[in-house]
Amino acid sequence: MKKLITLIAVLTLFSCAKEDTGRIVENFNDNWKFSLNQKGDFSNAKTKDTSWQTLNVPHDWSIEKGYQKDGKTAASTGFSVGGIGWYRKHFTLKKSDKNKEISILFDGVYNNSNVWINGHFLGKRPNGYNSFSYDLSKHLNYDGSDNVIAVKVDRKAYADSRWYTGSGIYRKVRLIKKSPINIAQWGVQITTPEVSSNTAKINIKTTIKSDGKADNNLSLNYSILDENGSEIASEKSILGDKFKIISKEIKIQNPKLWSTEKGNLYTLTVSLFKNDKLIDNTSEKFGIRTFKFTADKGFFLNGKKLKIKGVNLHHDAGAVGAAVPKGIWEYRVKKLKSIGVNAVRFAHNPHSKELLEVCDEQGILVMNEAFDEWNVPKLKSKKYLGDNAATKESSKAYPASFNEWAERDLKDLIRRDFNHPSVFMWSIGNEIEWTFPHYSKTYNDVNGSSGAQGYEQVPNYDYKTVKTAFDKNIDGEDPLVKIAKQLVAWVKEEDTTRPVTCGSVLPSVGMVSGYGTAVDVYGYNYRAADYDAAHKEYPNLKILGSENWGSYNEWKSINERDFVSGIFVWTGFAYLGEAGPWPRKGLNISFFDFAGFKTPRGHFYETLWIEKPKVYMVTTPAKESEFSFHKKEGWKFDMQLTAPPVWNMLRKWEWYKVNSKWKYKTDEEIVVQAYTNCEEAELFLNNVSLGKQKLADVIETDHILKWLVPYKNGELKIVGYNKGKKVDEYFLNTHNDKVAKIDISSTKQTLKADGTDVSVITIKLLDKNGNLIIDADKEVTFKLSGPAKNIGIDNGWEMNTQSHKSNSTITHNGKAILIVQATKERGEIKVSATSSTVKSKDLKISAE
Fold first, then answer.
1. Shortest CA distance to 433 belongs to which of 506, 326, 369?
2. Co-location of 272 and 409 in the same domain
3. Fewest CB within 10 angstroms: 157, 334, 680, 802, which?
4. What pLDDT was estimated at residue 114?
5. For residue 381, what are the contacts with CB-CB under 8 A and spacing of at least 6?
6. Which residues are in the Glycoside hydrolase family 2 immunoglobulin-like beta-sandwich domain (predicted)?
7. What is the domain count for the chain?
8. How do residues 73-89 score in pLDDT, each as one tens digit?
């Protein structure tokens, strides 16, 4: 019966929308006109744009133009172009729209956007990551004649970030039609202050936008649906003659809690009525959960202790740049979760609404971060990471606007993302200390001149000494702490239910300055050696590893300490930027590469974070390896720092030099590394045992089992055992270089014909024995037919500077991907791949 009532309610809302009585949200992404670097002012509605490119947004012109070694590009932003782009869209309205509030909502425009409607200037937005809207109502034509929205995107400063940003209207756009009296944008806030296994109290705060005149005929209807669409609660509020913010409490029975095991979600619909006539309505997804941080026992979710196993994630996604469809985030988050990831830090700016939705749905905690820079810019690289040679003009960025825009940008972020259950922290900044010299000077005075720049770990701080050094380096009020306290205050004005954090790279100094106590939970970036001293000196301090190297010792240092809530490894996926020298376009220092292929580091961390038995191995010629074996001393490790001209400390972020293959010169000595969570592992070469080793013997060092093996053609096999029984095995076979077969697969067999849904097509080059051809990369050409388009091609390699907007690519390690996006037509999609004379089977996908 409840389902029937719900269906009637939905049909009623639908019919109201058809009669233009409720809120109408229109997809405003199709058929934009675009021009890049064309001189002139194109804000006037009468300007001719028929010769301009026609495209749909989201659109990222930087990835579209490809990587360029020379000219106006920089290593810091992935050798991608900037410039000035103009977007224009023509649309018409009906006379019945005239008495409505009509607004346009941009999810993200990078950056320095200026917007006009019919030649009237609406406003600007320097920040390229925030969502924003404008009321168009007063300047529109309602007689069927042309309306023109014009957007200027000024990204002349092509080195304005330390990593890839993208350029243009790179997130979705919507046109929203509402009654003049309406529920404000982001005007519904949901909290769950009391939760038990039997009941949950849902608090709803609704902000009403009106002309300020008293009206006794307004009411709000609330309806809560479970994940099956069944109504489980409903309430009504009479607004009275004075209203702006209306609070309502609803209780639901036997709540299904949102957790990292299952992203249970509910839907709240809030409907505004006048004289029993629907005039506005909106829906919000939400989850019911409780969480807390403690200074001694760490983090608890729904009353259960949970160690945060997190990664940092940038907002770009390889071949599609910054214009990322939701399906790509589904693909990526699913992969992260498969190796045990339960949290993501949005590094280091607001990310897309679609990614938050995926984290909600899949049960991933989110540290939502606002800024990488405050009012003082960080240095940017021109040719290679660490040269800090980008000019002032090319690197002009958000710090120039911070003092004017920070409050609005921060509060808009919180309002937009308030109801997402995945969001459990707000971060006000990342490594801000680098921009305030008295912090690094204090650190160096205490630890030596190379301490801060080298990221050396100096344990057991004498905080009295740090305090003395800091006081000598600061005269008057600390500007960093002053800004931090203001940012925290602004967060608390919007949300008191979530803690505020930051990513601090000099936490020893931050604790004596007051930075560490300005936030609720103090994030430590690359300072695991500080944990014990900080906990001893400040026993009430809540500590989190907000950014960590992806080494075993980083995880071990957190896993062994209850008082450290968890870790955020740098990074979950490879990202563009922080690059160079050419052709290194980005950094694959991650669990998955640009294409989504799991890296050896990803396999290693899977053995740490997943209980399912696993064994995996990689190989390295002994002459190249950082590991060496000595009969008397056993295994030794000698870190090979990154070669000039790149910053030598980049090696701390990189993984070992390893190969996922078994193909070398006969009798060449090969170091075999095995990653496992099994009690024991045994190595076999051509079915001859090379010895069994116990994981317990290496847990205190690097968690890696190692063998030194003279190479022979054939099969290398590793077997994992628990309690003496085989529980997993992994093979590497010598392959030949001739392609005999192309294996092709798709992440989805069916796509929604909605113009946005995507599938990732993976191809692997195999020899006649079915072995992956990992070190003889070849050109592969994809053929696509049917109602779909190619939106990106990639091989996952950080040195790959081929265009992603192509049908062909060179494989890397024998693999490549094609990203296929459905159109709005139904039908059969066919994909195949060809390399030389070898063709894959036809892969068929249904668009429905």
1. 506
2. no
3. 334
4. 98
5. 74, 75, 76, 159, 162, 387, 388, 389, 390, 578, 579, 580
6. 191-289
7. 5
8. 999 999 999 999 999 99
Report d(CA 130, CA 350) in Å as an integer: 6
Bridging pattern class, strands 298-301 and 291-294 = antiparallel
Does residue 348 have a cis peptide bond before it, meaning omega lies within 30 degrees of 0? yes
Whether the bond between 111 and the residue before it is cis, its omega within 30 degrees of 0, is: yes
Structure tokens at 441: 């000077």
φ/ψ of 727, rounded to 5, equals -125, -15
Distances (CA, A) of 368 to 111, 271, 329, 403, 762: 20, 29, 16, 21, 31
- Other CB atoms within a 10 A radius of the CB of residue 305 amount to 12
* DSSP 8-state class, residue 128: S
Compute the CA torsion angle 801, 804, 808, 810 (nearest 10 deg).
30
Which helix or strand (DSSP H or E) is residue 546 part of?
Answer: strand 543-548
**830: buried, middle or exposed (CB in 10 Å: 19+, 13-18, 0-12)?**
middle
Q: Which of 188, 210, 186, 22 is nearest to 105 (CA)?
A: 186
| Peptide bond between residue 583 and the one before it cis (omega within 30 degrees of 0) | yes
Distance CA(589)–CA(340), nearest Å, equals 18
Quick check: helix, strand or coil at residue 333? helix
pLDDT digits (tens, 9 = 90+) for 311-342: 999 999 999 999 999 999 999 999 999 999 99
CB 194 within 8 A of CB 201: yes
Q: Would you tell me how many other CB atoms lie within 10 Å of the CB of residue 199?
A: 12
Residue whose C-alpha is closest to residue 525's, from 573, 575, 455, 470 = 455
Question: Strand 543-548 and strand 564-569: pairing?
Answer: parallel
Tokens of 247: 């609070």
Domain finish residue from 157, 178, 199: 178
Chain centroid to Cα 356, Å, comes to: 9
Same domain for 207 and 62?
no
193, 239 in Cβ contact below 8 A? no
Question: Are 143 and 242 members of one domain?
Answer: no
- Cα 276 from Cα 267, distance rounded (Å): 23
Determine the structural domain holding residue 830 and report its residue range. 741-847
CB 430 within 8 A of CB 348: yes
- On whether residue 25 sits in a domain, the answer given is no
CB–CB of 345/369 below 8 Å? yes
Helix or strand holding residue 533 (H, E): helix 531-537
The total number of residues shown for the chain amounts to 848
pLDDT tens across 1-22, in order?
344 344 434 434 433 334 447 8
Asked if residue 829 is part of any domain, the answer here is yes
pTM score: 0.95
Q: What is the mean pLDDT of the chain?
A: 94
Integer-rounded Cα Rg, in Å, for the chain is 28
